[in-house]
Fold this sequence. Notes:
The structure is a homodimer. Chain A is α/β, with parallel strands linked by helices. The first copy, chain A, has nine helices and seven strands. In chain A, strands 3-4-2-5-1-6-7 form a seven-stranded mixed sheet, sandwiched between helices. In chain A, strand 3 (65-68) and strand 4 form a beta hairpin. In chain A, helix 1 (15-28) crosses helix 9 (223-236). Chain A starts with a strand and ends with a helix. The mean pLDDT of chain A is 91. Chains A and B meet through helix 2, helix 5 and helix 7 of A and helix 2, helix 5 and helix 7 of B. The complex binds adenosine-5'-triphosphate (2 copies) and magnesium ion (2 copies). One magnesium ion binds next to helix 1 of chain A.
Amino acid sequence: MRSIVLANQKGGVGKTTTAIHLAHGFALAGHRTALFDLDPQGNATVAVQSIAADAVVDEALEGLTHITTNLWLLPSPGDGSTLARGATIDVERLKDLVARVADRLDWLVIDCPPRLDDWGWAGVQIAERVVVPVQAEFFAMHGLSQMLASLSAAAVEFPGKAALRGVLPTMVDLREPVTMEILDDLRKNLGDQLLRSVILRDSCLVEAASFGQSVFHHSPHSKGALCYAELVKELEHG
Amino acid sequence: MRSIVLANQKGGVGKTTTAIHLAHGFALAGHRTALFDLDPQGNATVAVQSIAADAVVDEALEGLTHITTNLWLLPSPGDGSTLARGATIDVERLKDLVARVADRLDWLVIDCPPRLDDWGWAGVQIAERVVVPVQAEFFAMHGLSQMLASLSAAAVEFPGKAALRGVLPTMVDLREPVTMEILDDLRKNLGDQLLRSVILRDSCLVEAASFGQSVFHHSPHSKGALCYAELVKELEHG
Lengths: 238, 238
Ligand SMILES: Nc1ncnc2c1ncn2[C@@H]1O[C@H](COP(=O)(O)OP(=O)(O)OP(=O)(O)O)[C@@H](O)[C@H]1O
Ligand SMILES: Nc1ncnc2c1ncn2[C@@H]1O[C@H](COP(=O)(O)OP(=O)(O)OP(=O)(O)O)[C@@H](O)[C@H]1O
Ligand SMILES: [Mg+2]
Ligand SMILES: [Mg+2]
């Protein structure tokens, strides 16, 4: 089983949107996949509510919810209420679950909250590799170097985990003139640490989430669907 | 002294951008203002580094940094490193500071991290009023109702604090056809809880932040500057 966590302490950069579409993309490609929602806010859990459509969903797997063909979900730990903060995470129990499902899954995709708190830190220590979504904006590099430094430290603290798979530019708006300049900058600064794929800004992605669907069902020919399909391929072959 | 906190558990909705421009806006309007950066990530602290330009900045105020005319800063508590997580917050000491500066300031503006953790919760309990920035997107209402429920609970737990001043649509992109529909929806659902002001999407805001400046200096005639000027007026008279 290969595992990948979406992590960035910056808020609203597309961690959840990417986690959902990687998980569904791997599943559609025929890989048995689990999506772990480690964010008490539960955005990923909500956004896949209607993903099943007409699929048969009754294959038990260690208490994970079977949500569509080839795809299981570990739902969000919180009821999402901010008054449920301080819900303590049992990392050992989580590692245990990962160990139990490892031989029955091909892929594990993990969504984290922003600010790398306990839940985010747990996500980083149970995943072999990390993808860091980043907005193609001026401000992106500042928080990014901090984030990459933290991941290097994590990779030392948790041998075999938290290795950087790559940085993923998200919400890329080609109507904004500075965007190409920023992508160039990212390539110069990151070299091979920058993934080949880029996720273009596409309101179909937002719309799909509001229907509890992935864009692969909701708008399969949209920019969002095409970009995430590319990313799935890139990570399959990585 | 009037106090306002920017809070929303959702990431990347414009809390920091709004906090900076409210603080600078009040200062430019002649009000003595403090900006408290309660986010260990320190985005606000970084984004005002060059705000001083040529202003005289030497008026001591209880250990706050005098950053430009009429504007003081309580810098971020973290060095921003995610490895500094678990830095414990001393809420009593923070309340103490607020009490000491109250008679020498007209406005206090507080920036919070996403996910209403300890630092966010502290922000909510030291501010009389809360502004909740929200992206004008399909998904916005879901997290918002949760957020407003948490704030109602906070207002009960901390009498005289955490009263909702209003919800502020941010990053409003008039090129997106569904935007007007979403704003209409917000107005229907929220009524008077929705502020009159709306912050349009404007890359000048991102650019200004990358120079450590506010848009009022960097691009004073931009959409971003005009929108935030409107918001400052609305809150001054509220
Ligand atoms: N490529 C895209 N084009 C347009 N909108 C997008 C795109 N990717 C994500 N979004 C939208 O931007 C918002 C933020 O995305 P998302 O929730 O995935 O970010 P996040 O990093 O998980 O946020 P948080 O830090 O709060 O967990 C959502 O409303 C989402 O639907
Ligand atoms: N009106 C706007 N137009 C264009 N870009 C904007 C606008 N408001 C904010 N941004 C940009 O969007 C990104 C997120 O904004 P910001 O950092 O203020 O959100 P936040 O809610 O404080 O995020 P976090 O949850 O990580 O603290 C930043 O790069 C910022 O420069
Ligand atoms: Mg998320
Ligand atoms: Mg912020």
